[in-house]
Amino acid sequence: MIVRRALSAGLLAALTAASASACGGQETDRPAARQEPQATASATAAPAATGPVLSVVDPWVKTTKKGMTAAFGTLVNNTDAEVTVVSGASALSPEVELHEVADSGGKMVMRPKEGGFVIPARGTHRLQPGGDHIMLMGVTEEVKPGAEIAFTLTLKDGTTLEFTAVGKDFAGGKEDYQPGHGATGEGMDHGGSGGAHAGEGNG
Ligand SMILES: [Cu+2]
Hints:
This protein is of the alpha+beta class. The protein has helices at residues 2-24, 31-34, 37-44; strands at 54-62, 67-77, 83-90, 95-104, 107-112, 117-119, 124-127, 133-139, 148-155, 160-168. Strands 1, 2, 3, 4, 5, 6, 7, 8, 9 and 10 form a ten-stranded mixed beta sheet that branches. It is globular. The protein starts with a helix and ends in a 35-residue tail after the last strand. Residues 22-48, 172-203 are annotated as: Disordered.
């Protein structure tokens, strides 16, 4: 028994070594090599040199029935150079803007972030309620908890980054990322894109 186990272990090692060395060559068309596509992939795809310029950690979208909502998460710059996100898009909304929350004459308002989101080299930029966020307007589809929403961010150099955010209830209050707009959540002025709510704005 011991001998058999040792032998099969040795055989396994030999096979592993064989398939590993086959990965580097042109023998991948052999049926034997195809049996373990995942092992082969993980063995050969190890170098991280082709990783994404930007990653999004824990992306989420505040649940909503319709109308406006926002996406949050942490943008992580994986490069040695500053990265700027200049625009966003999502099938969920025809109007996606990069927003910030700022003090405007003693009143906190949200507005398009001039110049976009800048992520320092090897640094991070947090999108969170009360701060920068990806604004979604004109949402016609309900976002439920757990919903998966696809996004595309475009960087200054034209590169795009795709990620999926998850629908999440946010108990901290609707107003946290839109302070100063009252509790109804309906009277917000979005710089002209509010449509039906125009006229109620800040003058
Ligand atoms: Cu906003």
